[in-house]
Amino acid sequence: LWVHLGITDEEKFHHQCVSFKISMTFSRDLKAISSDNLDDTFCYAKSTELIKETVHKKRYNLIEHLAGDVYKMLKTNLDKSGFVDSSLSITVTKLSPPIHDIHGGVSFTYNG
To answer: In degrees, to the nearest 5, what angle opens at C-alpha 12 toward C-alphas 8 and 18?
Structure first.
């Protein structure tokens, strides 16, 4: 996803590419395991749309804050969908930080 992210105004002016790794753990078997029905799980296509809506609402200074916003939004939606016993981990990677000698990106993981 392309996000307004960075400390300086110049850095935030241009969208920067970030990737998200989302891990969900459930303490009980999901109905979808046996039903093979999308309605019985938390749809990752829906998750992707929710992430896009969240990150395009504002400009971020830090990937830590970005990860926190995405975590809160997804955890709220998991709970509302009946998955209150789930745990969630969000990793945000800034793929090309404008810092000399950093190659391969910089990541931050938040587990709530």
So the answer is: 120
Ordered alpha helix ranges (H), 1-112: 9-13, 32-35, 44-55, 63-80
Q: Over the stretch 51-77, which tens digit does the pLDDT of each residue have?
A: 999 999 999 999 999 999 999 999 999
What's the pLDDT tens digit per position in 8-50? Answer: 887 888 888 999 999 999 888 888 999 999 988 888 899 999 9
Please choose, from the candidates 75, 77, 76, 85, the residue with its C-alpha nearest in 3D space to the C-alpha of residue 27.
85
User: Of 26, 32, 112, 42, which is closest to residue 77 (Cα–Cα)?
Assistant: 42
3-class SS of residue 80: helix
The C-alpha atoms of residue 21 and residue 88 are separated, in whole angstroms, by 11
